[in-house]
Amino acid sequence: MRTVGVEEELLLVDPETGEPRAMSAAVLARAAREDADQDVFEKELHEQMLEFATHPQSSMESLHAEIVRCRKEAAGHAGKIGCTVAALATSPLPVSPAIGVNQRYQWMEEQYGIATREQLVLGCHVHVSVESDEEGVGVVDRLRPWLSVLAALSANSPFWQGKETGYSSYRSRVWQRWPSAGPTELFGSAERYHRRVADMVATGAILDEAMVYFDVRLSERYPTVELRVADVCLHAETAGLIATLARALVDTAAREWKAGREPLDPGVSLLRLAAWQAARSGLTGELLHPETMRRMPADAVVRTLLDHVAESLEANGDLERAREGCARLLRDGNGAQVQRGLMQRTESLREVVTECVRHTQS
């Protein structure tokens, strides 16, 4: 059974006002003092962000428990220095992002200017183990049309700088400012994948392989494929659902690759439209069907995804968990819908943030 790990980026906020706080260095220092072996939490581009990474897990129950534990530990460390954490993919309230003191981050600011200064967005990255780079590239090629459905399920960023954006995932639109971000063409082999990455680095437009921000890529650090399209999810169980579906998609894609089944290839232009549609409507309207690239109601597209990976879900013992998780999101709403519901009820973005702090640890 493939192992799965999750990286989540959390927003540091004031527990009373909901305003972002540039305190990641202090939180990390506190965590290091309390646990000398602490390797869970990491700094990110902006000081208002705190990242954690789970250990690889083969059990989805164990992965969910670790996400919950990491979120609570992050809140505990943050609380001791006067802030807390919120699983929000953008800050609903106005913020002036503070770039971390780091040579890499300073290079990014010089290279990309305002795009770096404004890039306070928070995602959820899922790593799924693969047996080789060849299998990994076979998976990367076959996941492409399905990623927009994961993006719609995870959408959790309807507000930006104090305003309603009209998008369910505005994070994904801001993320597209990076020159290497987004969907890719088919690679066909590990050799062609690595050649393309090397050519991109050689242009000087990006610093290194770690800045190849494909929607799905081979990890440069681990023997995994890394899915990078999801917003950080408001609820831990949604993050667990995204990870569950990601593993099933990788299993299904690997099986197709081994069988010599050709990948679907709608082309990068249509994949970009599918990603835009998912960001715009989330689960509240229509999505582009991964196999036809035509509009269909979101619930029908989600059912298509479940049907596509049902065999893999069942083999992993995750079928009922995935079905129930998707049904819950379609019924109760994703993070974007919850945020908008809170805004409608309270008419206060501050209240939205402070309520989402509670949701983060629920």
Automatic annotation (TrEMBL):
Its domain of life?
A: Bacteria
Q: Which GO terms describe its molecular function?
A: ATP binding; glutamate-cysteine ligase activity
Q: Name the GO terms of the biological process aspect.
A: modified amino acid biosynthetic process
Provide the E.C. number(s) assigned to this enzyme.
6.3.2.2
Q: Which UniProt keywords apply?
A: ATP-binding, Ligase, Nucleotide-binding
Show the catalytic activity.
L-cysteine + L-glutamate + ATP = gamma-L-glutamyl-L-cysteine + ADP + phosphate + H(+)
Q: Which family does it belong to?
A: Belongs to the glutamate--cysteine ligase type 2 family. YbdK subfamily.
Q: What does this protein do?
A: ATP-dependent carboxylate-amine ligase which exhibits weak glutamate--cysteine ligase activity.
Name by which UniProt lists this protein? Putative glutamate--cysteine ligase 2
Q: State the species of origin.
A: Streptomyces griseoloalbus
Q: What does UniProt list as this organism's lineage?
A: Bacteria, Bacillati, Actinomycetota, Actinomycetes, Kitasatosporales
